[in-house]
Design brief:
Elements lengths: L1 E5 L3 H13 L3 E6 L5 H8 L3 E5 L9 H12 L5 E5 L4 H8 L6 E5 L6 H12 L3 E3 L1 H9 L11 H11 L4 H8 L3 H15 L7 H13 L4
Parallel strand pairs: 1-2, 1-3, 3-4, 4-5, 5-6
Length: about 220
């Protein structure tokens, strides 16, 4: 897998390079500022881009802006965004368009190597990867919404769906049957007013888009 990395922290940047190369992936470009991201992505057209949200020179949302522009220029480009904190507006903007191949992880997730690599590969394959803490924020910051009608089990299923897990993984995690998971998912879609879909990443993105645009 060919990867472009955009990270201004030299230690984390080199750590990502070492982690990815030692895992058999090819890092085709490494940049440390926001303006360098788009040219690198357009030149190398990687299988996935790993981008920090806040990059020089402004340390605001340069990485996110570059990610959104890159996906406009290269439709379907898989992008995994890293952030130091849960920044709901950034997650909503990236995920709210209903596109595949997107992820939003907190930086401390990189230290959990297996989880990080699994998320990266899932995004590169066109799926989604949303940090569990981000999911929790999206679910708990909203009041008086259809989410309130979900049962505790349905909320658990929704959180695992939003993280990008398939029905089999959800069933194993919750120690229930896949049939039960399918039933819970059907109830979730019904209560949220969303049509059910057999496409994993699309159903997750539909839910995330709904959450992202639900008033707080």
């Amino acid at each position: 897998m060919r990867v472009v990395i955009a990270e201004d922290n030299a230690l984390l940047r080199e750590g990502l390079v070492l982690l990815l190369t030692s895992s058999g992936h090819e890092v085709v470009a490494v940049v440390g500022t926001g303006p360098d991201i788009l040219p690198a992505v357009l030149e190398h057209r990687p299988d996935v881009a790993v981008l920090d949200v806040r990059m020089p020179p402004g340390f605001r949302d340069e990485g996110l802006r570059a990610a959104l522009e890159a996906r406009e220029r290269i439709p379907g480009l898989p992008v995994l965004v890293l952030s130091q904190y849960v920044e709901e507006s950034y997650a909503a903007e990236l995920l709210g368009g209903g596109s595949s191949g997107v992820g939003y992880l907190l930086k401390d997730r990189v230290g959990r190597v297996d989880e990080f690599l699994d998320a990266l590969e899932r995004v590169a394959a066109g799926g989604t990867a949303l940090d569990p803490e981000v999911v929790t924020e999206l679910l708990t910051r909203r009041r008086d919404t259809p989410l309130d009608s979900l049962t505790p089990r349905e909320r658990e299923v929704l959180e695992l769906m939003a993280e990008g897990h398939d029905n089999t993984t959800i069933a194993k995690t919750l120690v229930v049957t896949e049939r039960s998971v399918s039933k819970h998912i059907g109830n979730v879609f019904l209560k949220l007013g969303l049509p059910p879909s057999d496409s994993g990443h699309r159903r997750v993105l539909a839910v995330l888009a709904y959450l992202a645009h639900t008033p707080k």
